[in-house]
Specification:
single chain; 216 residues; alpha/beta; 55% helix
């Protein structure tokens, strides 16, 4: 589903995505309220969500959408790669973000990536965003410090090591090379991390790594 108050933007995105055999735009909405209403009646796997919209903005719409549909994946669309509101959107449950000027190939791969749930969108840009807005992370993911510490204590040394590398924006292949293990082993560790930390995806693991001070 495409959610943006500019019809021309939606038309352009739809043209790119509908050109792929494995992707289809099944719904469009001009603001957050319309998007939430549409999600109640239409099966959607991935949402491309604009941040700034009338009536209900992309951040609150993302929060409500993810709460009501836990399996939904949201990609936040923004004009600025250091837009502070994107951090809040990630904290609200978004799986990543893209600049509106992204190329067609990167847009298509981003949707596929989020749908798979096994990789982050543009890890370098995500890492730069989180570093630039690190003070906002405490508000983005409400969690008490004692609870967060307890979660980290449950991790094995190797899981903690993998969490650090995920926080640095490394891909599965890069982590496997760093630790001299197979990618399958890395995926297993990440699966354990997601379960133990109750994180929805890798982006949430990155936020946790920053909040815990594992990545500077």
């Amino acid at each position: 589903m495409l959610v943006d108050d500019q019809e021309l933007v939606r038309a352009g995105l739809a043209m790119v995505l509908d050109s792929c055999d494995d992707l289809a735009v099944v719904a469009q909405a001009g603001d957050g309220e319309e998007a939430l209403a549409t999600l109640e009646t239409t099966g959607v796997d991935v949402v491309l969500m604009d941040v700034r919209m009338p009536r209900l903005d992309g951040i609150e719409a993302t929060r409500r959408a993810v709460e009501r549909h836990p399996e939904l994946r949201v990609i936040v669309l923004t004009t600025f790669d250091l837009d502070e509101s994107v951090t809040a959107a990630i904290g609200a449950g978004a799986s990543g973000f893209l600049l509106k000027g992204v190329g067609p190939g990167d847009l298509i791969e981003a949707v596929r990536t989020v749908h798979r749930g096994d990789a982050m969108i543009d890890p370098v840009s995500t890492r730069r965003l989180l570093r630039a807005t690190a003070p906002l992370l405490d508000g983005a993911l409400p969690r008490s410090e004692p609870a967060e510490a307890a979660v980290l204590e449950e991790l094995t040394p190797r899981e903690r090591e993998v969490l650090c590398l995920v926080g640095e924006g490394r891909s599965n292949a890069e982590i496997a090379a760093d630790l001299v293990v197979s990618e399958a082993t890395v995926k297993t560790h990440i699966g354990h991390l997601l379960a133990k930390t109750q994180s929805r995806d890798r982006v949430q693991l990155v936020v946790l790594a920053f909040r815990a001070g594992l990545v500077r």
